[in-house]
Amino acid sequence: MIDLDFTAVIQFVNFLITMVVLNYLLINPIRRIIKQRKETMAQMQGVINTARDTSEDKLENYNKSLLDYRAKAAKEREELRNNALAREREITEAALADTQARLQKARAEISAQVEAAMTELRQNVPNLAKEAASKILA
After folding, report:
1. What 3-state DSSP class applies to 67?
2. What is the mean pLDDT of each run of 10 residues along the chain (138 residues)?
3. What DSSP designation does 4 have?
Protein backbone atom coordinates (compact mmCIF):
# COMPACT_ATOMS: atom_id res chain seq x y z
CA MET A 1 0.00 0.00 0.00
CA ILE A 2 0.88 3.62 -0.16
CA ASP A 3 2.24 5.09 3.03
CA LEU A 4 1.63 8.77 3.58
CA ASP A 5 4.52 10.05 5.57
CA PHE A 6 6.56 13.19 5.81
CA THR A 7 8.28 12.64 2.43
CA ALA A 8 4.93 12.89 0.66
CA VAL A 9 4.44 16.35 2.14
CA ILE A 10 7.96 17.34 1.10
CA GLN A 11 7.34 16.10 -2.43
CA PHE A 12 4.07 18.01 -2.54
CA VAL A 13 5.83 21.20 -1.37
CA ASN A 14 8.60 20.50 -3.90
CA PHE A 15 5.92 20.12 -6.60
CA LEU A 16 4.33 23.44 -5.60
CA ILE A 17 7.71 25.21 -5.65
CA THR A 18 8.43 23.70 -9.07
CA MET A 19 5.05 24.90 -10.33
CA VAL A 20 5.67 28.44 -9.06
CA VAL A 21 9.16 28.53 -10.59
CA LEU A 22 7.95 27.09 -13.89
CA ASN A 23 5.04 29.52 -13.88
CA TYR A 24 7.44 32.43 -13.33
CA LEU A 25 10.12 31.23 -15.78
CA LEU A 26 8.10 29.58 -18.57
CA ILE A 27 4.36 30.04 -18.43
CA ASN A 28 4.18 33.78 -17.69
CA PRO A 29 6.65 34.73 -20.49
CA ILE A 30 4.74 32.53 -22.93
CA ARG A 31 1.43 34.11 -21.85
CA ARG A 32 2.98 37.57 -22.26
CA ILE A 33 4.26 36.68 -25.77
CA ILE A 34 0.86 35.28 -26.73
CA LYS A 35 -0.85 38.42 -25.38
CA GLN A 36 1.56 40.67 -27.32
CA ARG A 37 0.99 38.58 -30.43
CA LYS A 38 -2.79 38.92 -30.05
CA GLU A 39 -2.46 42.69 -29.61
CA THR A 40 -0.17 42.91 -32.64
CA MET A 41 -2.57 40.78 -34.68
CA ALA A 42 -5.50 42.97 -33.58
CA GLN A 43 -3.57 46.10 -34.61
CA MET A 44 -2.61 44.53 -37.93
CA GLN A 45 -6.19 43.43 -38.49
CA GLY A 46 -7.29 47.02 -37.84
CA VAL A 47 -4.72 48.30 -40.33
CA ILE A 48 -5.80 45.65 -42.82
CA ASN A 49 -9.47 46.57 -42.40
CA THR A 50 -8.68 50.27 -42.76
CA ALA A 51 -6.58 49.63 -45.87
CA ARG A 52 -9.28 47.39 -47.36
CA ASP A 53 -11.99 49.97 -46.67
CA THR A 54 -9.80 52.71 -48.13
CA SER A 55 -9.02 50.65 -51.21
CA GLU A 56 -12.69 49.75 -51.66
CA ASP A 57 -13.62 53.44 -51.39
CA LYS A 58 -10.92 54.37 -53.86
CA LEU A 59 -12.04 51.64 -56.25
CA GLU A 60 -15.63 52.78 -55.93
CA ASN A 61 -14.62 56.41 -56.56
CA TYR A 62 -12.50 55.29 -59.51
CA ASN A 63 -15.41 53.35 -61.00
CA LYS A 64 -17.76 56.32 -60.48
CA SER A 65 -15.23 58.67 -62.08
CA LEU A 66 -14.73 56.24 -64.94
CA LEU A 67 -18.48 56.05 -65.54
CA ASP A 68 -18.75 59.84 -65.37
CA TYR A 69 -15.90 60.29 -67.84
CA ARG A 70 -17.37 57.67 -70.15
CA ALA A 71 -20.74 59.42 -70.01
CA LYS A 72 -19.08 62.78 -70.69
CA ALA A 73 -17.10 61.27 -73.56
CA ALA A 74 -20.23 59.71 -75.03
CA LYS A 75 -22.10 63.00 -74.70
CA GLU A 76 -19.24 64.94 -76.28
CA ARG A 77 -18.89 62.35 -79.04
CA GLU A 78 -22.63 62.59 -79.76
CA GLU A 79 -22.43 66.38 -79.74
CA LEU A 80 -19.47 66.36 -82.13
CA ARG A 81 -21.28 63.86 -84.35
CA ASN A 82 -24.39 66.06 -84.40
CA ASN A 83 -22.26 69.12 -85.18
CA ALA A 84 -20.54 67.23 -87.99
CA LEU A 85 -23.89 66.12 -89.40
CA ALA A 86 -25.21 69.69 -89.22
CA ARG A 87 -22.07 70.96 -90.94
CA GLU A 88 -22.43 68.23 -93.57
CA ARG A 89 -26.05 69.30 -94.15
CA GLU A 90 -24.97 72.94 -94.46
CA ILE A 91 -22.25 72.07 -96.97
CA THR A 92 -24.59 69.80 -98.93
CA GLU A 93 -27.34 72.42 -98.98
CA ALA A 94 -24.87 75.11 -100.03
CA ALA A 95 -23.51 72.88 -102.79
CA LEU A 96 -27.05 72.03 -103.89
CA ALA A 97 -28.05 75.70 -103.90
CA ASP A 98 -24.90 76.60 -105.86
CA THR A 99 -25.54 73.78 -108.31
CA GLN A 100 -29.17 74.83 -108.76
CA ALA A 101 -28.12 78.45 -109.24
CA ARG A 102 -25.57 77.43 -111.87
CA LEU A 103 -28.11 75.16 -113.53
CA GLN A 104 -30.70 77.95 -113.54
CA LYS A 105 -28.11 80.35 -114.97
CA ALA A 106 -27.08 77.83 -117.64
CA ARG A 107 -30.73 77.20 -118.54
CA ALA A 108 -31.32 80.95 -118.74
CA GLU A 109 -28.26 81.37 -120.96
CA ILE A 110 -29.33 78.47 -123.17
CA SER A 111 -32.86 79.84 -123.32
CA ALA A 112 -31.51 83.28 -124.21
CA GLN A 113 -29.29 81.76 -126.88
CA VAL A 114 -32.21 79.73 -128.25
CA GLU A 115 -34.39 82.84 -128.26
CA ALA A 116 -31.65 84.84 -129.99
CA ALA A 117 -31.18 82.08 -132.53
CA MET A 118 -34.93 81.87 -133.10
CA THR A 119 -35.17 85.64 -133.51
CA GLU A 120 -32.28 85.62 -135.91
CA LEU A 121 -33.84 82.74 -137.85
CA ARG A 122 -37.22 84.54 -137.97
CA GLN A 123 -35.50 87.61 -139.31
CA ASN A 124 -33.58 85.57 -141.87
CA VAL A 125 -36.51 83.38 -142.95
CA PRO A 126 -37.53 85.68 -145.83
CA ASN A 127 -33.92 85.92 -147.04
CA LEU A 128 -33.39 82.17 -146.65
CA ALA A 129 -36.68 81.51 -148.44
CA LYS A 130 -35.63 83.77 -151.33
CA GLU A 131 -32.26 82.03 -151.52
CA ALA A 132 -33.85 78.60 -151.40
CA ALA A 133 -36.42 79.59 -154.00
CA SER A 134 -33.73 81.05 -156.23
CA LYS A 135 -31.65 77.91 -155.92
CA ILE A 136 -34.60 75.74 -156.59
CA LEU A 137 -35.68 77.88 -159.57
CA ALA A 138 -32.27 78.48 -160.89
Report:
1. helix
2. 78 94 93 96 95 96 96 96 96 95 94 91 84 80
3. -
